[in-house]
Amino acid sequence: MKFKKSVCLLAATTLLAGGLVGCSSSPKETAAPAVASTGDTQNPYLASDKSLKLTVHMGTKDSGVFKNDWPIFKKAAEMTNVTLEGTLPNTVSDFSETFSIVMASGTLPDIMQALSKDFLQYGPEGAFLELNDLIDEHAPNLRKFLEDNPDVKSASSDNDGKIWFIPFIQDGEAEKGWFIRKDWLDKLGLEEPKTVDDLHDVLTAFVTQDPNGNNKKDEIGFFHRNTTLGIEGLMALWNAYPSYRAFDNKVVFGPLEQEYGVAMENMAKWYKEGLIDKEIFTRGGKARDILLADNVGGLTHDFFASTGNYNDQLASKITGFQFDPMLPPADVNGTVKEPSKRDRARNYGWGISHSNPDPVATIKYFDFWFSEEGRRMANFGIEGDTYTMVDGKPIFTDKVLKSDKAPVDVIRETGAQSNFGFQQDYFYEEQWTLPLAKEGIDLYKEKQVFMDKYPVLKFTNEEQKELEKINPKVETYIEETRQQWVLGAKPVDHAAFVKELEKLGAGRLVEINQAAYDRYVAELKQ
User: Same domain, yes or no, for 55 and 181?
Assistant: First the structure.
């Protein structure tokens, strides 16, 4: 694909609702020279001697489309002399489609937000600029951060070490944990389950001994609003995993391992005994809201922050309601572990297009968001509006903490937490995490139960093509068979299951992942 510079952007994309059209500023009118500029000691954040306007293609499901009037970006423009102008209309919701249309046009906005795989594909083809030299020469904050965080550097670069984008970087380890009806335990005289067998006995008591006291057998033991994530939590109790893991530098694909069959046999048994929600495959995303509000849900494995809110929400509706976090029950080998852990470098970020009029000013602008002031704005918004500084810490105002909206939604109205290339500060989330959820997070951190994440791997073009060919068939077969096993529609036959997976190419998937993992390990050792 050939890419060319153009002042008018994407005239061919008006087929989208609202018209996906934008214009890139002429470098003759607004661009600063492509050299290290300023020298202004009064403003260390100045990225350009002249006022510079850059177009940006940016939008995610979480934060929506980039808005020109977002306060943190207006404030950043005052500090850096670089103003961003969004190219996506507010009506856009399918960001994958809009990206494809923009790339097909061959003329790009000055700054592009995209998935890592897209940067790694289109960068070498000429769509985006390689950032290594720009970072080394003009972005001291970014340079230091990448030096101190080789995992993030790896995630943003290709197999030759060429950096193509700056990722959105999450903070904090704890993501999900176990929550149980503590009031039901107390009513039935039961202890918090410490082992898989304990958990089986507790769930049996929940569904047979009427802990909600309505004289009906309507209690549900384990439930979840997302079938795949819910099953992942249960599977770990039998030392099984739904996808890839690496142990002692060896990549394994969970469904091919013997433990997977054992887990499925036990989960099918628990389902038959009524310990798992009969509608776990169909109930959907509102399961947690509905089952807890109806006083019938007993146990789940879900996000700390959101699940920890239900005690406050339901205290006035259900007498004595306590849905409390607990440590994971020890697995069949006696190990207490939590398979989920928050990703650091996400698989998306922003990069510089080939037609950008001033790459030096742009990388300086990116660098601003890794400065102390820039990072604070990106996380907390505008001082005096969404936060104030107290004892050297940014503390959210009542506008954020006492709003009818979720705190993160209020913050995002300033442009903060909008998933561009910056480093999160977990303190932003900690401030509205209720004490109960924080207690659970602290317990998991104290006991160090988190398993290592499977890293973000980089595949060659040939490997990527193979993965795209094999993965859909393998994933469909696994999902369909897993559901049949758990529901009891067919007996668990793991040996036959593995044979079919091998026919579909699962063994090749492991080989490709192992090769990519070996490259990842070697890169981190450099």
Answer: no
Residue 227 lies in a domain: yes
**408 lies in a domain?**
yes
pTM for this model (two decimals): 0.81
pLDDT at site 521: 94
CB 48 within 8 A of CB 39: no
Q: Give the three-state DSSP class for 81.
A: coil
Do both 212 and 302 map to the same domain?
yes
Q: Within this chain, do residues 307 and 383 fall inside the same structural domain, yes or no?
A: no
Backbone phi and psi for residue 163, each to the nearest 5 degrees, phi listed first: -85, 125
Name the token pair of 495: 């040996």
Helices (H), 273-397: 287-293, 304-307, 310-314, 359-368, 372-380
Structural domains in the chain (count) = 2
Q: Indicate whether 200 and 127 sit together in one domain.
A: no
Query: What's residue 85's pLDDT?
Result: 98
- From residue 95, alpha-carbon distances to 60, 92, 100, 456 in Å are 7, 7, 9, 21
Looking at residue 22, what is its pLDDT?
A: 39
pLDDT at 2: 54
85 and 234 belong to one structural domain = no
Asked, for residue 520, whether it belongs to a domain, the answer is yes
Query: Would you report the helix, strand and coil content of the chain in percent, each value rounded to 5?
Result: 45, 15, 40
pLDDT of residue 63: 81
Looking at the structure, do residues 197 and 162 belong to the same domain, yes or no? no
CATH number where 276 lies: 3.40.190.10
What's the token pair of residue 369? 């968001």
Among all chains, which residue has been given the structure tokens 């890839």? Answer: 244
Q: Cβ neighbours of residue 35 under 8 Å, at least 6 residues apart? A: 360
* Cα 200 to Cα 193: distance, rounded to the nearest angstrom: 9
pLDDT for the residue 61 = 81
Same domain flag for 319 and 356: no
Same-domain check for residues 215 and 231? yes
E strands, 118-157, are none
Rounded to whole angstroms, the Cα distance separating 435 from 443 reads 12
Domain that holds residue 238: 176-340+437-526
CB atoms within 10 A of CB 159: 15
Say what the pLDDT of residue 390 is.
Answer: 97
The set of residues, in sequence order, having a beta carbon less than 8 Å from that of 380 and lying 6+ positions away, is 386, 387, 394, 396, 411, 416, 425, 428
Is 69 part of a structural domain of the chain? yes
Q: Are 94 and 102 within 8 A, CB to CB?
A: no
The strand pairing partners of 112, in sequence order, are: 57, 351
Q: What pLDDT digit, counting tens, does each position of 331-340 carry?
A: 999 999 999 9
d(CA 207, CA 216) in angstroms, rounded, equals 10
Tokens of 281: 């495959």
The segments of the chain whose pLDDT lies below 70 read: 1-41
